[in-house]
Design a protein that fits this description.
Blueprint: H1 9-15, E1 18-31, E2 35-41, E3 46-52, H2 58-65, E4 72-81, E5 89-100, H3 113-118, H4 120-123, H5 127-149, E6 153-154, E7 160-161, E8 172-176, E9 179-183, H6 188-198, E10 200-208, E11 221-230, H7 234-255, H8 257-262, H9 271-275, E12 280-282, H10 283-294, H11 306-313, E13 320-323, E14 336-337, E15 340-344, E16 346-351, E17 356-363, H12 368-377, H13 386-390, E18 399-405, H14 406-414
Helix pairs in contact: 5-7, 5-14
Bound molecules: 4-amino-1,4-dioxobutan-2-aminium adenosine-5'-monophosphate and magnesium ion.
Amino acid sequence: MKTEKFISVKEAMEKKKGKVSVRGWVYRERKSNQFIFLVVRDSSDIIQCVIKKEKVSEPLWKAAEKILVETSVKLTGDIKEDKRAPTGYEIEVEDLEVVHYAEPFPVAKDQSYEYLLDIRHLWLRSRKMTAMLKIRSTVFGAIHEYFRSLGYYEFHSPIIIPGGAEEGPTLFEIKYFDKKMYLTQTWQLYAEAAIFALEKIYTIAPSFRAERSKTSRHLTEYWHAEVEVAWFKLNDIIDLAEGLVKHVIKRVLEENKEELKILERDVKKLEPTLKKGFPRITYAEALKLLKEKKGMEVEWGKDLRTIEEEKIMELFDTPVFVTHYPKEIMAFYKPRDPKDPKAALCFDLLGPEANGELIGGSERDMDINELIGSLKKKGEKIEDYSYYLDTRKYGSVPHAGFGMGVERLVRWVCGLDNIKDAIPFPRTMTRTNP
Ligand code: 4AD
Ligand code: MG
């Protein structure tokens, strides 16, 4: 094949007519005596290509006859509109180079979900996975864009940590030379040290949870978007979280219309999130709603379970902030509400359509004695937290922060049944390969 300037399938279709050269992979093939139809995909889109026996050389026809799905090709030909073609255009091939003949591709229709996870490295090429990956990329970009536009610094905390966490039992232990270390669950304790230098910081980094739960919303390795801000109180950090979610949804609706269509996502379900303020209710109000609207009795002091979160969310079409959870069941750093000491100054953001907790955040306790007391109560070793407690000794200030599970958000935006489809290579208790 002559050296050509290749353009993407999308650019070729935008050109509408004339000679084009594209390259990619055969997505579908259909052969008859006189015609070979190849649907070729690249990262931008798919396009039907036709090879007419009477119009091409014999070697080209012979080469094309051996093409199977996922064979990589370069081709040149005339593009024109064709209503019958899957994306409305067709290229009549004049020149074709097979870059690599694929073996019979193991992915076909109607395969089991577990099998598709086994061959995720190949399934990534599917239109739905590709669409999700593009949306995921938009989401990450939008998170960076949001925080940077507000003057936040990107800050990085260690992944390998000596201890200190959200919940001890879900820490992954690692062998670190002759010591035990852990994989981080949150950047938070390090971020709290860094706000004394930078005041407004954010990150997007992997977090790890040794979750034994096999739910549609838990991964053992997930991407965590976290923020920590000096001087912020509960209302400020809630406003920041609402702005973040709105910005990400706005960007996806602007940039990923095609992908949302491929995923058959009903975008109407996302629109209220842009148009309305998110309701803010307290934990006590949530219990009241559960009782009055759903006939469910939850005792004050118990954490909300998935089923209860889902019942609450049936009442709303946007995410909802639930604030002031009981202090006793919260992480040690969440401060008491001075107005109601049994409650903590914290929030969860619950997602609509049964997506559960998207974000968890709080003010941070400034009272060193309260912190030590909570840590002791939870059976933690105070020495492990000495660097953290130092942050409360030298010019401590009010501050607050939150963490958002990026895959939880991607799952909701894309309308996916399972969080495993919101990340390219998922890790769960039972899924470690590929
Ligand atoms: O509520 P979590 O445990 O809060 C924290 O880690 C805080 N230290 C964050 C902070 O204030 N900087 O986790 C935060 C979010 C949850 O709301 C959820 O979206 C996500 O992380 N998350 C998970 N996502 C996927 N799989 C899991 N196993 C997750 N566990 C938490
Ligand atoms: Mg939480």
